[in-house]
C-alpha cells in the first residue's frame, strides 16, 4: 500500500487520524494504516465484564454458607457475616465494568478487533462516526455512478 502525500487531513483526535482516502487508529501503542476503500463496516462495541461480579457473588454465597455452619451462640459474628454477605451480594449486582472494542470489517469480509482503552472510548466513538460518514459517502458515490 502506498500512502498518498496529497491526502488532506480531515479529522484527528487522541485516538487516530482521518484523511481523505485512509485513516490511522491507535493500536497497541502504535498506529495502524487502513484505506477507506478497503473498509466495509466499522463499529464501536461496548461489552460488559463479569469476572469481578462473579467473584463477589460467590464470596457472598460462601459467607452465607459459613454463617449457617456456625453455632448459634455466636450471633454477633453470624449477623455480621449476614450483613457483609448482603453488602457483597448487592455490590455484585450494581458494580459495572465495561470494555470497548472497535470491530472493523473489510471488503473481503475479514474482521479485525481493536481493544480500546476506557479513557479513549469517546474519542474512538467520534473517530468511528467520522469514518462511517466517509464510508457512506463513498458508497453513495458508487451507487450514483
State the main characteristics.
3 helices, 3-stranded antiparallel beta sheet, 4-stranded antiparallel beta sheet, 145 residues, alpha+beta
Provide the residue-averaged pLDDT: 86
- Main β-sheet: number of strands, strand sense, barrel status? 4 strands, antiparallel
Kindly state the percentage of residues in helix: 40-55%
The rounded distance between the terminal residues' Cα atoms is 26 Å
Q: What characteristic shape results from the CA principal axes?
A: rod-shaped
- Total strands: the figure is 7
Question: Which stretches of 5+ consecutive residues score pLDDT under 50?
Answer: none
So how many helices?
Answer: 3
Tell me the series of helices and strands, N- to C-terminal: EEEEEHHEEH
What is the radius of gyration computed over CA atoms, rounded to a whole number of angstroms? 25 Å
Helix/strand-derived category reads alpha+beta
Q: Looking across the biggest beta sheet, what order are the strands in?
A: 1-2-3-4
Portion in beta strands: 25-35%
Question: Mind explaining what this structure looks like?
Answer:
With 145 residues, this protein is α+β, with helices and mostly antiparallel strands. It has a domain of 46 residues. Helix content is 43%, strand content 33%. The protein has a four-stranded antiparallel sheet with strand order 1-2-3-4, with helices on one face. Strands 5-6-7 form a three-stranded antiparallel sheet. A hairpin with a 2-residue loop joins strand 3 and strand 4. Helix 1 packs antiparallel against helix 2. The radius of gyration is 25 Å and the shape is rod-shaped. The model has no long low-confidence stretch (mean pLDDT 86).
Amino acid at each position: 500500500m502506498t500512502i498518498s502525500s496529497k491526502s488532506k487531513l480531515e479529522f484527528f483526535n487522541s485516538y487516530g487520524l482521518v484523511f481523505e482516502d485512509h485513516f490511522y487508529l491507535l493500536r497497541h501503542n502504535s498506529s495502524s494504516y487502513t484505506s477507506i476503500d478497503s473498509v466495509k463496516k466499522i463499529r464501536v462495541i461496548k461489552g460488559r465484564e463479569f469476572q469481578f461480579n462473579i467473584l463477589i457473588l460467590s464470596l457472598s454465597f460462601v459467607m452465607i454458607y459459613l454463617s449457617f455452619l456456625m453455632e448459634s451462640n455466636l450471633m454477633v459474628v453470624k449477623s455480621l457475616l449476614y450483613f457483609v454477605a448482603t453488602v457483597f451480594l448487592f455490590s455484585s449486582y450494581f458494580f459495572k465494568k465495561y470494555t470497548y472494542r472497535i470491530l472493523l470489517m473489510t471488503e473481503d469480509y475479514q474482521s479485525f478487533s481493536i481493544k480500546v482503552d476506557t479513557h479513549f472510548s469517546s474519542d474512538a466513538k467520534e473517530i468511528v462516526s467520522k469514518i462511517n460518514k466517509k464510508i457512506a459517502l463513498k458508497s453513495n458515490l458508487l451507487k450514483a455512478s
